[in-house]
Amino acid sequence: MAPHPFKTLNIEETRIARDVVLAQHPDVVVDFREIFLQEPEKEGMKLFLDLEHSSKPGQSPTSKRPSRLAKCQYDIIGSDKIPEYHESIVDIGLKKRVRHEVIGKEHQASLTLWEFEILVEACKRSDEFQKAIAEFKLPEGFELVVEPWPYGGLDLGSENRRYFQGLCFAQDTRSGNPDSNFYAYPLPLIPILDAHKKEIIRIDRLATGGKGDSLTGKTHSEHIVDHCQSAEYVPELLPGGTRKDLKPINITQPEGPSFKVTDESLVEWQKWRFRVSFNPREGAVLHDVHYDGRSILYRLSISEMTVPYGDPRPPFHRKQAFDFGDGGAGNCANNLSLGCDCLGVIKYFDAVIVGSDGEPKVHPNVVCLHEQDNGIGWKHTNWRTGRAVVSRMRELVVQFIITLANYEYVFAYKLDTAGGITIEVRATGIVSVVNIDPGKTSDYGNVVSGGVLAQNHQHIFATRIDPAIDGHNNTVLHEESHSAPWDKVTNPNGNFYEIRKTVVNRSSGHDAAPEHNRTFKIINPNKRNPLSGNPVGYKFVPPPTQKLLAAPGSIQAQRALFTNHHVWVTKYRDDELYAAGRFTLQSQLEVGGVHDMVKRNEEVTNEDLVIWNTFGLTHNPRVEDWPVMPSEIFQVHFKPSDFFNANPAIDVPSTKNEASVLVGKECCLEKL
Amino acid sequence: MAPHPFKTLNIEETRIARDVVLAQHPDVVVDFREIFLQEPEKEGMKLFLDLEHSSKPGQSPTSKRPSRLAKCQYDIIGSDKIPEYHESIVDIGLKKRVRHEVIGKEHQASLTLWEFEILVEACKRSDEFQKAIAEFKLPEGFELVVEPWPYGGLDLGSENRRYFQGLCFAQDTRSGNPDSNFYAYPLPLIPILDAHKKEIIRIDRLATGGKGDSLTGKTHSEHIVDHCQSAEYVPELLPGGTRKDLKPINITQPEGPSFKVTDESLVEWQKWRFRVSFNPREGAVLHDVHYDGRSILYRLSISEMTVPYGDPRPPFHRKQAFDFGDGGAGNCANNLSLGCDCLGVIKYFDAVIVGSDGEPKVHPNVVCLHEQDNGIGWKHTNWRTGRAVVSRMRELVVQFIITLANYEYVFAYKLDTAGGITIEVRATGIVSVVNIDPGKTSDYGNVVSGGVLAQNHQHIFATRIDPAIDGHNNTVLHEESHSAPWDKVTNPNGNFYEIRKTVVNRSSGHDAAPEHNRTFKIINPNKRNPLSGNPVGYKFVPPPTQKLLAAPGSIQAQRALFTNHHVWVTKYRDDELYAAGRFTLQSQLEVGGVHDMVKRNEEVTNEDLVIWNTFGLTHNPRVEDWPVMPSEIFQVHFKPSDFFNANPAIDVPSTKNEASVLVGKECCLEKL
């Protein structure tokens, strides 16, 4: 029997897809970028899921099973040596290509990590670049490091060739430690690669001035890193070593985990049931999320993020990453290692990636699953009897972590015993820095170490929530609380406040409004809670974070139109997964993103709809963000709102944990 | 040697204070309300702390030691039997009263829990009340429960006598379980007690109607709880019992805790050093908070909270609690029990309370202290070498929990390894409900169970932050990020954004502005970070939560003027600890709260200043909040901002935790 329709493609399936593509392109070079699951069309999948959920455990419906499809992304390199980018869909069962698209030159395929190697090699070969580097007098023992980056937004009027840029640093190799932190020694030049020609076509020289200096003035001396300071983070290079007085906290689960994973994708835990998949662009995705046999979500994913920099000095306006669309969050996922990235009993999930020859291999441990305690879940003490009943909040965490050159993001979906789902993002890693002349400060960032300017920037994320609240026909509304006018009849003491509900009738963008406690509800208008009489639903309060600051109409803003609103509601269409559109690399304008989707002005009440939530962080670095920044944590909470008939966690036992101990008067441990 | 000046009064000291007071009032009855530490005046304390911090460990300065003072709050009951409320300050060392104040009749002393007993007793004795109750036909086995509440804001023009109100419920006693949840059976009447006369002086009848019904219509039948439903939460009464598949998570610290507590008040942990005290009004307070020998805060406390209800039907406008000012959060603190309220290695702190005779006794385990893991603290993977360095975030939690009739709040101060301080509040417990006629719904709340209307309400908290950023002279400013106009010279690509700083020059109130990423910084203008050149400081982003909704000028609004702004900056004065003023019980107007303090329009730059942060929750209940609501969690984060010269957690070891285990393919546990 074929794998479950939501399951990540396995190695065998991936090979079949590759072979079908190769057979279609016999006389050319095929350079593969990605092969991954093309998820089934929803209409067919609904029938399958209906059958699946009504089947007996262990049984799986076969009559309505959608075909296993692979999305294949590859370059065809013909005689002119200029790659042409193709996307095909292959039916694995039929071993047949069922869709084929040649992508126009106006778009660029997502980058692959091996393209980064081309930049590094081209720098080595480029006389111009080597000459530019030689202008600097690096101290003895310092060596050049080139850090490849996407090119950012293409300037208007420039030809859309495939470019990459390199940020340059010097690494102190005297310790012999390859993890010595080279970001502490930035060099003020950026080589630009034409990826098709595999040549450095230009070197951008960077300003290193401070307040009052012109945007283009090159004020630095040839002793470019002499005013920089070492900024190590690997423990063996820390001047003072690591602290010694942090004693271990061990998290053990002597009876094993409360979750069960079967079929390497189906997770069951505390009445929750869902599937996990993983793809190169979005990383971990949750599918078909149920609680106690009732449907809540069809699909949940992190869709996109953009990181624009606010330094106006050219070419820093091209520092703007789209870390999902440009290179793929899944591609950049860390191989998580036990005991550091999570504690407790941990289940890992693998993914499959392909090389440029299309040969698949396992990408191990890219997703981890574990339970954790999150403090008091609910408590009540009857003050008459003194009886306290306290039950803890347990969470199940599905986590993946990506590294994008200097930065890392920790993404987690947390499901809890009270029926809640939290999307959490932690931003950590090393802030992006440039060289600044000795003694100067800047309006464009903060000097976090000698000679090192951490530029002001933003991180704006988009999550995609495809709800299925007791079925696929849902409605979104927002609810606000408003002061009511004093009125002898209706509000004689002035304490009344009114709840106003506004239904989102057509696909559109909406904003957070914390001053009105604006809360978005995703309801099923066809089903009412028997107690309250309200439609069953889930709610969330969009974090009212600052939107994109780049001036309207600027390329930074135009390519990130998804940041214009905190909440978007669109009508569901197959394949519309990406908030900023399919193609973000070098884009000048968001095409096919949520901004375009809402333009269709579709009816979205009692329909199959999708909610997109954007939130972010304006990050003006502080010295404490150096050399590796402490996690900045964001959370969006989805909570049942008249979906259940009581607190779903009311049956969570209030058992006393016997492993906890007391510190006595003398600071010794006493077992109670 | 006398105890440390910040230490909670011990039993012996409390007795001395009581005896001094009794000696001052020889021929009358003295009913004590509270005896607790009167903290030293700051000017003297600064000298002491300077000496203390420059002393060798174990030594403590004696030359500058401030006197130990007790604040004594008591009623004097003379021949007219009408109590007169007094406050005295007693010098414990001198055994002498040093200050004495008779509080005017315009104010009411905070309530004591034994006053609640008077209400219950008076109800039993009141014929009128018994007759009113008898009008209802309660089912066999149901018994009356009277839940005493503060009276709320006094109506204008009414005489300021000392009142309490009782919310009435019926308890199903058929199970014989005294913890059967009586809140599920609300009765529509409220007896009003004159606490001095000890008599029920009035019975307010409650409307039970729904949408379209008048505010005063009494539409209910005599079978008042027949349409209500059982809503148990104690495990033995749950119809389905508790869930069986939640396996334990044990948190163990085989090498003991990383913290050290000496002198029953001094906590040292991971470069942090502070004192904990506890008082009847604010609960746990942190004093003299240092990191790595540098001062950050002089004092940190939760100052006040108000919970106004939005149901316009009289007398519900008088449902407005001030849980710190009315009855004292410390007085309502739970005796925390091991293994439920916290996990791991736990240290408890006791407090001292007095009976009405002034006799002190230990209030055990009112504060708990423990360490916890909070996930990834920082991480960076060098993608060239594959080397991942990941260090976890460790937190030290100082927690106390209060029960206020139906509701509970969990307050925690969390200090972390990255130099951050988080104030966390969890709201849980049972929402306040009233009876609603069968089948009706309401504009004033949500029907969460048969016949039970959970009224819309707000919770608004005020924290008091008395900073000492590298000294007592500090300045507050806020920093915003703003889009900059496109400009050929200064912003040629439109990506620049500008940081605007606004110094708070005079005592004043300010609001959150998330659309501008408004961030408040508390800086020491006299000391600069050597790397960035900025003044050293701490920052926080005030949660932009909804303000009080009661109409301006209403009594609910007038007595809670502290809710008018998210952030207040005032000049420090001794004894100004309470955001809503000293006296909140039955208040009609906030007197002496932050609203009054800022009116002094004082210079607050480079001064000893105090920051007050108000935040809250508009709580329109959902069915899932019943019968005990899942914790709603709020956090305010204070983070160093150019205070340190690098990430203070960079030396936290990245040791792999050996206790974690792997779930293998067959779901068995494998030790890695």
From TrEMBL, chains A, B:
Is the keyword Cytoplasm assigned to this protein?
A: no
Q: Provide the cofactor note recorded for this chain's UniProt entry.
A: Contains 1 topaquinone per subunit.
Q: Which UniProt keywords apply?
A: Copper, Disulfide bond, Metal-binding, Oxidoreductase, TPQ
Keyword Oxidoreductase among UniProt keywords: yes
What PTM annotation applies here? Topaquinone (TPQ) is generated by copper-dependent autoxidation of a specific tyrosyl residue.
> Which biological process annotations from GO are given for this protein?
amine metabolic process
Q: Which GO terms describe its molecular function?
A: copper ion binding; primary methylamine oxidase activity; quinone binding
Please give the cofactor(s) recorded in the UniProt entry for this protein: Cu cation
- Could you tell me the superkingdom of the organism this chain comes from? Eukaryota
InterPro entries under this entry?
A: Cu_Am_ox_TPQ-bd, Cu_amine_oxidase, Cu_amine_oxidase_C, Cu_amine_oxidase_C_sf, Cu_amine_oxidase_N-reg
Domain Copper amine oxidase catalytic as annotated: residue spans: 249-650
Query: Active site located where?
Result: 323, 407
Positions carrying 2',4',5'-topaquinone: 407
Stated name of the protein = Amine oxidase
Source organism per UniProt:
Melanomma pulvis-pyrius CBS 109.77
The major lineage groups are:
Eukaryota, Fungi, Dikarya, Ascomycota, Pezizomycotina
